Amino acid sequence: MIRLEDIQVTFNPGTILENRALKGVNLEVPEHQFLTVIGSNGAGKSTLLGAVTGETPMVGGRVLIDDMDVTRQTVDQRANQCARVFQDPLAGTCGDLSIEENMALATCVVKSVAGACRCRVNVASCSKSVSAF
Ligand SMILES: Nc1ncnc2c1ncn2[C@@H]1O[C@H](COP(=O)(O)OP(=O)(O)OP(=O)(O)O)[C@@H](O)[C@H]1O
Ligand SMILES: [Mg+2]
């Protein structure tokens, strides 16, 4: 389960470039459910995902994964609970693999941390992703 409580993200706060990208987002994704976030360019989809994974600094709100408050955890600390496939193919996504296989890699990372990787993707075919692990 993922729960977002009043998520707020402001880029370049206090400057002429200040941009309040997320102004209090509340969201709950129960276990085993899928969620598709749809929005126009610049709506805040990537920012929202970055808030979940810890890559995007928040100025307010809380992120809970399986009832654990991970708001103050770093990306590395959250890596055993959440993973992502990046939109930018140069930011960690393996171009030799399909989108599904790339998603499976993320699952593999999570399961690997838990000590029981059942990922069937041949990660050896993607040296870039393997080295990123
Ligand atoms: N690192 C950043 N620094 C400053 N502003 C940013 C940064 N990242 C995103 N923004 C701004 O935050 C807002 C949300 O951007 P975001 O990338 O989350 O949108 P998106 O919905 O993912 O768009 P796209 O469909 O193009 O991927 C936009 O106004 C964007 O310009
Ligand atoms: Mg985006």
Account of the 3D structure:
With 133 residues, the protein is an alpha+beta fold. The chain has two domains: 2-78, Rossmann fold; 85-132, no CATH class. It is 26% helix and 22% strand. The chain has four helices and four strands. The protein has helices at 45-53, 75-78, 99-114, 127-132, and strands spanning 2-11, 19-29, 60-65, 68-69. The chain has a four-stranded antiparallel sheet with strand order 2-1-3-4, covered by helices on one side. The radius of gyration is 16 Å and the shape is globular. Residues 116-133 have low confidence and may be disordered. Adenosine-5'-triphosphate binds next to β2 and α1.
Short characterization:
This protein has 133 residues and is an alpha+beta fold. The chain contains 4 helices and 4 strands; from the N terminus they run E-E-H-E-E-H-H-H. The C terminus is likely disordered.
